[in-house]
What does this fold into?
Amino acid sequence: MRFFPSMPALSGYVSVRMTHTDGATGFLLNRGRLTVQVGPKPFFGIKIQGDFSGAQTGKLRSDSTVAGFTLTDAYVQLVPPMKWATPGSLLAQLHPAIVAGQFKTPYSLEYLTSFATLKTADRAQAVDRLSQKRDIGAMAQVGWGRFATLAAAVVNGEGPNATSNPDKTQMLMSRLTISPLSFLSVSAKIANEGADHAWGYDGRAVWHALTVEGEGLYRKRPTSSTTYLDAGGGYALVAYKVLPWLEPVYKYDRYWDTRTTAVGSTITTAATHSTWNVFGVNLLSSPEWLRLQLDWERRNVEPSPGRSNVYIAQLIAIF
It folds into this structure.
């Protein structure tokens, strides 16, 4: 559940990235997010967010080299009015909320984490390839203090800004988070849409200057009338602020998938295994409105292209 300011509030962040691999260097404005939030009533909130970065497709005009605007979030949130939630009542204890519109679905821990506060420049491979991301639909959430939160959503399953739902089916998903200790949370999640089945688990501990987290994701689904995907993976991460402005990070990131294709009586199988070891350091301002991330990704992808090294410098400014 998000808390909204009574007056419109403007926020966002800008991210610029340099990537060096195989002797080539590239620069990219990979995020340019602008967010407006307001709660005109204590029980009613609105969030609208867009991306103006060069990573977005489309142009402002047919003859323009400037990327256009992409809507990322646009939703309303409803919570019971305070006069309904008398102290000690079940309604007050559960903190229910309903969200409708386009939003981040309640699934992957790393995807639910804002890009501006990630410990590494890239999200895990399994999160990028297998997780449910933004979509259009409705979500309900209840909680029990800080100890447990249950979120469930029904969405189109077509992703953000989709203008139709061709298969006429909806994706159902839920995420249960338990916090047995104030610094620790663990979650399990599941999603289904017809023959598309996904599930996973994750956990995060933040204790003083130490952060330890990890996530596992799995998915089985047909990618076409003849091909079936069976995939999984996840990551484990540890970060420690040696100084308030200096945070070394290590991340182990693994992904695998098997694609089985049946054409008539012929069945073929293709398997991919990818492992990344990410060594990084974050240089932080105080307060933390500026973040410089320096990452070295040692990638091994089998059967091809094999081993490679990717060096990333990413500067994020938050406002």
Residues 9-318 form a domain with the Porin fold (CATH 2.40.160.10). Helices lie at 90-94, 109-112, 125-130. Residues 79 and 97 are 5 Å apart (CA to CA). The chain has a mean pLDDT of 92.
